[in-house]
Structures are given as structure tokens and as C-alpha cells.
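Sequence dictates fold. Next comes a concrete instance:
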Amino acid sequence: MLFPTFGKTNLMKYILTLFLVLFVASFQAQNLEKISKEINEEGITLYRSEMASWYGTDIFRENYNKMENVSGYFSYIDESVPKCIFFSKDNKVLATIAFPTNYNPKNAKLDLKERDFTPVETEYFTIRQNALARIKKDTIFKVYKNTSFNIVPIIKNKLKKVYVLTGPSVDNVVVFGNDYLITFDNKNEVKHIEKLHNSMITQNVSDEKVGKTISGIHSHVIENWQTITPTDICTLMLYQKFTNWESYITISEKFASIWNPNNNLVIMKTENFKNMTENIRKGKEEKSKSKEVIK
């Protein structure tokens, strides 16, 4: 009685097809949720490292007066504690700055005692230096005016990688793109290098014509990075205190990613995103027409 136009065979095919469609839709939703969670967590890991580097650099410069001895720095998470390490030209640790989870510089612990790297720090140092050497000689890495590279080594779940982000050296600008991911083998040798964006994208925090911006959007075209990237998440979190953006969107042929400052990330198919925005637009138009009729 429920399907009067179906024979038994066609009814079974219909039910199986419907079940398959629902299963695929559910699987895709769960898969996108999993991808979203992984990207967001990686972005937060990058952010925690970069925050330690940002504040660690300021604290170090205020308390160390022999900058000619410094060769470089890196940050890492040591049993949930963010630490920034500065090292000398003969590969000795010159300073260790440990931060609370809120990164309040007033509560940071500074240790200027010179020492050797710990075994864990040696791993971070090695992949950081190998990445730097590759950056200097590989033409895939592009340097733009008024920017510099931030080298962020990450060791997580036995995977070793270095993210290379581009940071601006001028105010009122947030830089996305011109970023790279370098992965390493178990001997700390470079295994693979890839670009995360096809180019560099800049957005002003405050615009002369529209004033202070409240959001932003950029597109992704690289096949392997159709969603928002961990570097995008990291950049958005780092600059949130300057931008106060209410949301940010990346869009590609396959996916639209919507981020907000509460660390909520939603990834959906681009076609679904376009349908959603179109429905919102039509809803606003209908609401506007209703107000005009009431007047």
C-alpha cells in the first residue's frame, strides 16, 4: 500500500538505492567531520608553537644582550608545556622560555643557563636545520617583499614535519599562503616538500574604504589542499586579537571551510555551501519584501 506503483523487484531496488544514498551521505558527513577535527587540531598545534616563539622572542631580547651569539630558535610542546629554545652558533642552548597555557609573558619562566640539547630537542633542532638548508637551495620556496619565513618543526605521533609559514614585516596585514609542508623520514632526511597554497594572499586588518574588516575569504586550487589548511587556522588564531574577525572562509572546487574564533570549523561540499548561501540570500530578500509590504 505504501508503494502502489512498484513491483516487488523494483521496490527492493528502490529501497536498496535509498539506503545506499543515505549511507553514502552519512559516511561523507562523518568523513568531513573527521577531516575537520584533524585539520583544526593540527592548526592549534602550530598556533601553540608560534605563540611560544612570538612571546619567547620578545622575552629573550629583553633579557639577553649578546645577540651576536645567537644562531636561531624553535619552539615545541614539552609534556603540555610550550617552550621556546634559543641556540648558539656552536649548537648550545642559550635560553629556555617556558609558558603557561595562557601564554601570559608575566608568568613565563626564563632560564638563561647554557646547556646541551635534550634528546627530544635534538630531534627538533635537526629537522629544523635540515628544513632551513632545503629552503635556501630549493627554488620551490618563494620570498616576497616585506615578509619572512617562520620555520615550525612538529613531531607528533612519530611523524616529523616542518611547516614553513610566511609572516609580514609590516603592520595592518594578515598573510595567507606562500606556505609549505616538509616531511621527514626516520633518519631526519627530507622526504617530501609540498606547497599548501598556490600563491600568497594578503588581507588588510583595516581598509581605507570600508574601515575595519570583519571577515575574509580566499580560494584554494591545489588538488591536495582543497580544504582550509592547518597554516590558515594557525594564522587566524595568531592574528585574532588584532583582527577580531567574526569568521573566515576558504573555498575550492570541492569544499568550503568555515572557521570562527571559538575554534569551530565546519567543512562542507562547495555545492552545499552555495545552496546554503543562496537560500540565505533569498530569505533576506523575502524578509525585505515583507517589511516593504508592511510599510
